[in-house]
């Protein structure tokens, strides 16, 4: 069965049911170089989404904020972008908008063949969901064991931290405790007022002041 939906923003989502795992894997490989498609698979249901410019701009800005924060805090990071994460035993898989190893960076540094049945999942994923996925992607993230998800829906930014196989909504990030959802939102909602580099410079200056005050106290 095929169901194609367009949002009011002309974002297209195609839902296929009765899709075998092998078919999903083949499509993932075929579309690996196509940055214009995102796949989500949940036990036989496959969603193919075409992101909008607003989606891509938001994910890159949040990604740059993660990268800037880790630099200012002196933390190493392993960035894996929109890598496909899946597990055949769970019959689930997805592609985050951005993802990172931070806590487990040293363990995973430079590793390119990652098996989630043996290796730890990314510590942080960024999820831009402007028009809402037809599948519950948070449930899939939780099943895969991704410790923290930042979800931005175009208006609000939520931080979800995994505990007891379910996500809990938190104000502070667990992997980067210096950051709060309200602080992140205050910067990302200004992306139409300032150039991207100017906004990141302001974010870095804010971080430096915050770190300095925290250190002195």
- Share in helix: 25-40%
Indicate the low-confidence ranges by residue numbers: 5-9
Question: Which class do the helix and strand fractions yield?
Answer: alpha+beta
Largest sheet: 6 strands, antiparallel
Any guess at the CATH architecture? Alpha-Beta Complex
* Number of alpha- plus pi-helical segments: 6
Sum up the overall morphology in one term. Answer: globular
The name CATH uses for the topology is tt1808, chain A
- Strand count: 12
Number of domains: 1
Q: Look at the structure and give the mean pLDDT.
A: 90
- Residue share in β-strands: 25-35%
Top CATH class? Alpha Beta
Rg of Cα set: 18 Å
Q: Which strand order does the major sheet show?
A: 1-2-4-3-7-6
Describe this entry's structure for a reader:
By secondary structure, this protein is of the alpha+beta class. The protein has a single domain (53-216), classed as Alpha-Beta Complex (tt1808, chain A). It has helices spanning 21-30, 53-73, 105-108, 137-144, 181-188, 196-216; strands spanning 2-6, 12-16, 38-42, 45-50, 78-79, 85-87, 92-94, 98-101, 124-128, 148-152, 157-163, 166-170. It has a six-stranded antiparallel sheet, covered by helices on one side. A six-stranded mixed sheet has the order 5-8-9-10-11-12. Helix 2 packs parallel to helix 6. The longest helix is centred in the first third of the chain and has 21 residues, at 53-73. The termini are far apart. The relative contact order is 0.13.
Keywords:
217 residues; alpha+beta; tt1808, chain A; 6-stranded antiparallel beta sheet; 6-stranded mixed beta sheet; 12 strands
């Amino acid at each position: 069965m095929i169901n194609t939906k367009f949002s009011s923003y002309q974002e297209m989502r195609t839902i296929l049911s009765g899709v075998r795992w092998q078919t999903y894997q083949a499509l993932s490989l075929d579309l690996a170089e196509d940055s214009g498609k995102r796949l989500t698979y949940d036990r036989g249901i496959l969603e193919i989404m075409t992101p909008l410019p607003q989606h891509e701009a938001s994910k890159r800005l949040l990604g740059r904020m993660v990268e800037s924060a880790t630099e200012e805090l002196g933390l190493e990071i392993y960035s894996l972008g929109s890598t496909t994460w899946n597990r055949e035993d769970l019959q689930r898989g997805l592609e985050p908008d951005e993802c990172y190893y931070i806590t487990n960076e040293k363990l995973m540094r430079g590793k390119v063949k990652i098996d989630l049945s043996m290796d730890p999942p990314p510590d942080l994923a960024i999820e831009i969901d402007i028009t809402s996925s037809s599948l519950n992607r948070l449930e899939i993230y939780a099943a895969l064991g991704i410790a923290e998800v930042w979800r931005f829906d175009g208006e609000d930014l939520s931080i979800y931290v995994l505990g007891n196989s379910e996500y809990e909504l938190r104000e502070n990030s667990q992997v980067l405790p210096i950051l709060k959802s309200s602080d992140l939102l205050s910067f990302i909602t200004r992306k139409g007022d300032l150039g991207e580099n100017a906004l990141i410079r302001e974010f870095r200056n804010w971080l430096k002041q915050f770190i300095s005050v925290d250190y002195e106290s």
